[in-house]
Design goal:
Largest sheet: 7 strands, parallel
Strand content: 5-15%
Order of helices and strands: EHEHEHHHEEHEHEEHEHEHEHEEHHH
CATH architecture of the largest domain: 3-Layer(aba) Sandwich
Strand order of the largest sheet: 3-2-1-4-5-6-7
CATH topology of the largest domain: Rossmann fold
Shape: globular
Helix content: 25-40%
Number of helices: 14
Number of domains: 2
Number of strands: 13
CATH class of the largest domain: Alpha Beta
Structural class: alpha/beta
Distance between the termini: 7 Å
Radius of gyration: 21 Å
Mean pLDDT: 92
């Protein structure tokens, strides 16, 4: 079976790139087609693989500055791969915001789309940058996004099979594309580290952008002098990093990007992990925290409802306010004193989302659907 992998682009290394990494391990000979790449953690992780970029890679500043405002070029970018992808039996696309799906013509290969989410900016979901507050951008977006939604829908109809990364996303695929999909949860995997003593800090792991609830975490940490560690780097055009740096007290530490071994230690040593996005597609970081035995304080919505067990592996809060999060932390402390959060149980629960499970389910799905 001749397989090709297609991914939005290689920039930051996040949950979508962990999925791509697992797919690349399942299909070690498959090349990776991508719109463009930027030097950084993601590109370094895939540096030994055959990576084929589009013509956009050669356009000055496209990978760093222009890919978002010129997103309407996405159809031209992906159509430029049509003739190359026609040589494969199966194309597996890893799709989210760059409309990475719908490849080929009459002689096209079987396409399986692993959908992280239909593009959030096209369907009214919170995004990392609130450009809509600027009226020129709002007018530009109204025009461009109309045509992008039409293209996104048409591209979705050319997909043979959809895989959703959560029940939350499965419902979005059904709503916006009128397509059925099968849920295969993303792979969660971290290096095993020696036993780490529990600290007093709360932990957040996220790209430092908007719509992740980072300002809320910092505000509560400041108000109650809680020790907070933030792992992640600023991304894109968001001014969130400067915003939360300016409001953070001495009790808040920004660690930037850390490797997986150090990340596992930070998860294991945290008192609790904070998962604060209000409509997360799936949310791999709280599962990573649970894999290390750490309970989660999560917003009651989105993909978190599928991974966190209230009162056993963590606690929920809603609405996303200082008062509500404060109440959740108080409830967490009460349950913590009662010994409600059993480390072994939390780790076992997180194993339901293991990389081994992901690989088996993906390979079974591809073999059954491709029928080659």
């Amino acid at each position: 079976m001749k397989v090709a992998l297609v991914h939005d682009y290689l920039g930051e290394f996040g949950g979508a790139e962990r999925v791509l990494e697992a797919l690349a391990q399942i299909f070690p000979k498959a090349p990776i087609y991508t719109a463009f790449y930027r030097e950084g953690p993601a590109y370094e992780r895939f540096g030994k693989r055959k990576i084929i970029t589009s013509w956009a890679q050669k356009v000055p500043f496209f990978a760093t500055k222009l890919h978002s405002p010129l997103r309407f070029l996405a159809p031209l970018i992906w159509n430029s791969f049509t003739s190359q992808l026609a040589d494969y039996d199966v194309v597996i696309s890893s799709a989210s915001w760059y409309v990475t799906k719908g490849f080929g013509g009459p002689q096209r290969p079987v396409e399986i789309c692993y959908c992280h989410t239909p593009p959030r900016y096209l369907y009214g979901y919170p995004t990392s940058v609130n450009w809509q507050k600027y009226w020129p951008v709002r007018i530009f977006a109204l025009i461009v996004n109309h045509f992008m939604r039409v293209y996104d829908f048409e591209a979705a109809q050319r997909v043979d099979w959809f895989i959703a990364n959560s029940e939350n996303v499965r419902r979005r695929i059904e709503k916006f594309y009128r397509r059925e999909s099968v849920v295969i949860y993303p792979p969660v995997d971290l290096p095993k580290v020696p036993k780490v003593e529990k600290g007093e800090y709360f932990l957040v792991v996220s790209r430092i952008v908007g719509a992740k609830g980072l300002a809320l975490a910092v505000e509560v940490a400041n108000k109650f002098n809680l020790e907070l560690k933030v792992v992640g780097k600023p991304a894109g055009y968001s001014g969130e990093y400067q915003k939360i740096r300016d409001m953070a007290g001495a009790n808040v530490e920004f660690l930037g990007y850390v490797d997986d071994r150090e990340l596992a230690k930070l998860y294991a040593g945290a008192r609790a992990f904070l998962a604060l996005a209000t409509d997360e597609d799936f949310g791999m970081t709280p599962v990573e925290a649970m894999l290390c035995g750490t309970p989660v304080i999560a917003y009651e919505g989105g993909g978190y409802l599928e991974t966190v067990v209230d009162g056993k592996t963590g606690v929920f809060f809603s609405p996303p306010t200082v008062g509500s999060l404060t109440t959740a932390i108080n409830n967490f402390e009460v349950l913590e004193k009662k010994g409600a959060f059993n480390t072994a149980y939390i780790k076992k629960h997180a194993q339901k989302f293991s990389k081994e499970r992901f690989k088996k389910e993906i390979l079974k799905f591809v073999n059954e659907r491709a029928k080659l």
